[in-house]
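Our consortium's second objective concerns turning raw sequence data into structural hypotheses that experimental partners can test. To show how far this objective has progressed, the report includes one record in full. It was chosen at random from the queue rather than selected for favorable results. The single chain below, 123 residues long, was entered without modification.
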Amino acid sequence: MDRKPRTLFYDTTCGLCSAAVTLLRRADRRRGSLVFEPLGGERFLALVPAGERGRLPDSLVLLPGDGALLVRSAAVLEALDGIGGAWKLLARVARVVPQGLRDMAYDWVARHRKAGAGCRARP
């Protein structure tokens, strides 16, 4: 079964987001299961409806093949699931943790990423 690639939009001004993209690119066993695009870029504006953009975080947003936007921990786990291998297993195991707890951890990292991850202010 051939799946449409997932599009991962990310904050290109954030060192942590960029490092995550580098890791995901290297780990992508299916080569092409993830497509990486900047948040606010042309493809983001073309694929994400204007009404949805305001509710999205400024870190990682995943647009799977079915078109339903995923954010926070759900986006990370779906990206890991999509690249396969041990990452898929990790994503499946992590889904045992309630989403509220996963999102609390995601939000904590997101709040602190700008201080220690080489993030620059958006122009």
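The partners drew two points from this record. The mean pLDDT is 85. DSSP finds six helices and four strands in the chain. Both points have been shared with the crystallography group to help prioritize constructs.
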